[in-house]
Amino acid sequence: MTAAGRVLRLLGARGETLAVAESLTGGLVAAELTSVPGASRSFLGSVTAYATPLKRDVLGVDGGLLAERGAVDPEVARQMAAGVRRVLGADWGLSTTGVAGPEPQDGQQVGTVYVAVAGPSGVEKVTALRLNGGRADIRGESVRDALELLAGELGENARAQDTEQNGGNGCLQP
Question: At 114, which CATH number?
């Protein structure tokens, strides 16, 4: 099963929804998700905020942060994920921002990528990637890594919820 399929299966089992904010991937995460039959049960939609002002004006990323650090920054990725979650009313937000090339951007080298997830109960996680290859390779790997990050968080969150509901640490007692 693909990462998109796992994400959608986990979201469906939980009755939760997802929204995506994309920059360098330009809609590829949304395309990967919508290639899975039944995606509409959990995937609400996406914002392709390719231009920096859209990150501020649509997703609510702090303008001072963007001016100081540029769009390729872990905190920008975190705010994008939280912003798309808020704007589209989803349980989970996922974001991508980075430099696919061919030239550096905002002082960041080609292959510098940040993917982030924001979810219920204050869940927020950002992963920094240093990817190699051409533009298509970097964008494709960013999609895979973003979906894997979310799948991991959904799995961890599910295990934590199960432990809380069952009052244990996940170990079976004889």
Answer: 3.90.950.20
